[in-house]
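Retry 2 of 3 after timeout on previous attempt. Resubmitting structure tokens to design endpoint.
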């Protein structure tokens, strides 16, 4: 986002700065767990189509494409959260390992 001149602002569901790469993985994992829990509570975990993840992190993916920056972690996060919201994936620590693989640039091409 910084490359595109974006100013990050906290949202009710989460603070985008809680996911900054300069933070420890443990801190980012905790932020993800908190965000997923809030999302599940407000929606009842029913996967109701487009959600804030599509409009916020999805926007990051689109802006990354616009300025020529790959966003494999963001893409993986969107897919992971959609699967959790739709009931196709449990919320568990193993999910974080997939995101960690993406942060090490071992993420499947997206």
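Retry 2 succeeded. Sequence:
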């Amino acid at each position: 986002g910084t490359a595109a001149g974006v100013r990050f602002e906290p949202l009710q569901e989460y603070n985008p700065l809680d996911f900054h790469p300069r933070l420890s993985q443990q801190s980012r994992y905790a932020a993800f767990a908190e965000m997923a829990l809030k999302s599940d509570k407000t929606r009842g975990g029913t996967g109701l189509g487009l959600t804030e993840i599509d409009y916020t992190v999805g926007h990051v993916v689109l802006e990354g494409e616009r300025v020529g920056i790959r966003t494999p972690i963001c893409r993986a996060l969107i897919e992971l959260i959609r699967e959790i919201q739709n009931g196709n994936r449990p919320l568990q620590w193993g999910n974080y390992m997939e995101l960690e693989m993406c942060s090490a640039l071992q993420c499947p091409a997206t």
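Attempt log closed. The first helix runs from residue 25 to 43.
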